[in-house]
Task: inverse folding
DNA sequence: GTAAAGATTCGAGTGCGCTCGAACGCAAGG
DNA sequence: CCTTGCGTTCGAGCGCACTCGAATCTTTAC
């Protein structure tokens, strides 16, 4: 599908440096960035890495979306596996998937390979939602840039 | 700026027909679609046109975001002006601008041309937010399509 | 004339996703 | 030993944007 390349070009055309939350997630895009043999990290460091708050990480665990191990004194230990899961969750949340639907999806993951057809369907729907959002956002961008041009004295109409 | 053309191509590459809420807003993209000399319409029809619920339109009026006239029996009458305002509001909402910020913006509009510099600043910030969201959404799309490929037997990795 | 459909206002309720506060436990530095 | 600071759990609270229910009025169709 050609969509990826085109969007890649759109991204490349953004002249501003990446800022805020997305940076962290961006840094974890490919698994190579997460060293699978690295020692597990605490909740604060994990939160910083994935761009969420420690509170939110605990909340996600409480909802059954991640299951970090605990050390001898009960502290959470996030492994590379957990971090990859968190990055996935963060991206799905940012694209509008609800906690409810993520719980459903993760529970399917927990049930093993037999649930792959349903997981695939969920990802299909998610893809459609994201594409719709891209269209909506693009309209909003056009509207916004139109206003800016107008406020700048609409040199070209 | 090259961004618009590129995003246009991304949009053109979407093979699915447009569905749901965005359709209505899409239909109203350019002002030519709204006949300025057309008679005003009621709340139900206006809601359908802009893709919001009648409840939401009343809520927006209550928040001071639109001010449709009333007929002899107190029914709202949305003019082309009101509809354009609603389309603007719908797009800003869909791109994540809050009601709070929209109230601020509209109150500046009400105060006249002297507030243009601040309105321009608001639209600048909004544009940056939208571009960030486009990047986030694109990452989510990549992740989603990666999952789909994996579930389809990851033929290319 | 009367019933159904759709409009009005008002305040209250809902759902989502955090976010926080309180009370407490553990680890490292001086 | 003691403080400082991050960790824990739990339940409650919050902010946002609707969304709804109830009581009432208007318009339309028969």
Result:
């Amino acid at each position: 599908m050609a969509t990826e390349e085109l969007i890649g070009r759109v991204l490349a055309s953004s002249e501003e440096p990446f800022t805020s939350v997305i940076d962290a997630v961006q840094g974890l895009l490919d698994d190579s960035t997460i060293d699978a043999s690295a020692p597990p990290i605490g909740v604060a460091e994990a939160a910083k890495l994935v761009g969420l708050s420690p509170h939110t990480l605990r909340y996600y665990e409480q909802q059954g979306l991640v299951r970090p191990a605990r050390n001898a004194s009960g502290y959470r230990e996030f492994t590379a596996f957990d971090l990859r899961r968190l990055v996935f969750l963060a991206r799905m949340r940012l694209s509008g998937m609800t906690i409810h639907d993520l719980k459903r999806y993760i529970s399917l993951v927990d049930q093993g390979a037999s649930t792959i057809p349903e997981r695939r369907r969920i990802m299909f729907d998610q893809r459609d939602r994201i594409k719709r959002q891209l269209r909506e956002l693009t309209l909003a961008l056009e509207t916004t840039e139109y206003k800016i041009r107008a406020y700048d004295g609409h040199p070209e109409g």
Observations:
- Chain A touches chain B through 54 residues (CB under 8 Å).
